[in-house]
Amino acid sequence: MSPAATPVPATTRRRRPPLAAYANYFEVGHNAFEFLIDFGQFQPEAGAVTMHSRMATGPVHAKLLAGLLADAVNRFEREYGIIEDLAQPVATLVPPHDFERRAVRARADAASSLAIATDPEVAP
User: Fold this and answer.
1) Predicted model pTM
2) Around Cβ 93, how many Cβ atoms within 10 Å?
């Protein structure tokens, strides 16, 4: 059985699934150690994107995720029909060139927020 198909023992699964957030905008970046996937919502009427989540994972797990997603899309298309590609790529869907710089800053901000939240000397 492949690692993707190995069932997780019931004792280690969450009792309730995590909250879902709709995403129709994605940015993907990587460095030598990790892949960073940002999720957001593109609002065409405003011409703006609101980013709401980030996932960081190692290269092996990023490849596993890519395979799982490709498999899910293939199953979906067999059941419901071919998913049409976007007629024209939307210019705002191109990942910005400063993705890595923003990712480093976001990790640093998250780490400093965690340090403040766990420091007993800092009052909430």
Assistant:
1) 0.57
2) 13
- For residue 57, the surrounding DSSP H or E stretch is strand 48-57
pLDDT(119) > 60: no
Q: Residue 80 above 60 pLDDT?
A: yes
Residue 4, classified by CB atoms within 10 Å of its CB into exposed (0-12), middle (13-18) or buried (19+), is exposed
Q: How far apart are CA 93 and CA 78, in angstroms?
A: 27
Q: Beta partners for 48?
A: 43
Sequence-separated (6 or more) residues with CB below 8 Å from residue 64: 3, 4
- pLDDT per residue over 97-113, tens digit each? 566 666 677 767 766 66
- CB atoms under 10 Å from CB of 42, counted, come to 16
> What's the half-sphere exposure (Cβ side, CA atoms, 13 Å) at 26?
10
Torsion angle in degrees (nearest 10) through CA of 111, 116, 121, 123: -170
In sign, the C-alpha dihedral spanning 111, 109, 55, 23 is positive
